[in-house]
Design goal:
mainly alpha
Length: 179
């Protein structure tokens, strides 16, 4: 790995919550965050925002899991997709954990401590060493995450009335287009 050029292109852990400056509706939010936080300014190759639908779906799953209210049938349906999307999510972070623009902690005597991640293994695998920008793996994460979202929506809308489903889908498309 050419770490000197790669570090500038590492996705940040909090970059998953920063929308694109190219977004028609959310560009002001992205500009605001980018002007106040260095890690979010001029993100292009390290852009990893999956979208509000995925973020809210995963927050919902986390809350249900923490409250022990995640239905077991739903968990069985999505566990393999959760695993694969989790693997791709960790791989999109790159070879080192990058948090708020910092990829390491400097302790006494100038020693830098970094948290290595599995992406480093790609350097030693044939053909995988060509993946230089880890943020590009976000496409696979988003693909598997939307499968999870579909299972979650399907599970919770099964018992709802047609009126509730219609309202949900109108709100869903509104969020989709705004995002």
């Amino acid at each position: 790995l050419q770490t000197s050029s790669l570090i500038a292109k590492l996705p940040d852990l909090f970059g998953y919550f920063v929308p694109s400056t190219y977004s028609y509706f959310l560009n002001r939010v992205a500009d605001f965050i980018g002007s106040r936080f260095h890690f979010a300014s001029n993100i292009f190759e390290n852009f990893t925002y999956p979208g509000l639908i995925i973020i809210f779906s995963f927050i919902t799953l986390c809350i249900l899991k923490l409250k022990n209210k995640l239905p077991y049938k739903l968990y069985l349906s999505i566990k393999q997709y959760l695993f694969v999307s989790g693997v791709f999510w960790v791989l999109t972070l790159g070879p080192f954990l990058h948090i708020l623009g910092k990829w390491g902690i400097t302790v006494d005597d100038g020693i830098r401590i970094v948290i290595p991640l599995p992406f480093s293994i790609f350097h030693y695998l044939p053909f995988m060493a060509n993946i230089r920008i880890p943020g590009r793996l976000i496409v696979a994460f988003i693909f598997f995450s939307y499968i999870i979202c579909a299972y979650v929506f399907d599970y919770f809308l099964q018992t709802k009335t047609k009126k509730i489903k219609t309202i949900f889908f109108i709100l869903f498309f509104l969020v989709f287009f705004i995002d």
